What we know:
Number of strands: 0
Helix content: over 70%
Distance between the termini: 83 Å
Structural class: mainly alpha
Strand content: under 5%
Oligomer: single chain
Largest sheet: none
Amino acid sequence: xxxxxxxxxxxxxxxxxxxxxxxxxxxxxxxxxxLENQQQAFLQTLQLSPEVQVELGLQQEITRLTNxxxxxxxxxxxxxxxxxxxxxxxxxxxxxxxDFEASxxxxxxxxxxxxxxxxxxxxRKEKDFQGMLEYYKEDEPLLIRNLIT
Length: 149
């Protein structure tokens, strides 16, 4: 039984190896054919006048840049779509934070002893302010809550 199992495994490996070799041969044949086509196109290009060679080179470069531009536009669209999704998620989370903060203000102060212990000393830079307040948009609910209390 063990010998048959080993023979079956060996045959499976041989079959996989032969399939892989066939796939590699096909890939090599395709690459060889592509190389021959490129060589023939190159030889034909060498027989053309310098002006026509330059024009063909420019056309190829324009084609390459156009394809690259299309790829970049596709990437930009994907990134914009992702940005919209993330902004939507941010709005949802901001709403949840505001709801949470609103629920926290309704709880009496005596029930929140752990918040008093969590206060942190903040070092501030001394500046001359003239009635303007600078803050980050995400800090707005906290700022409003602190102004009210």
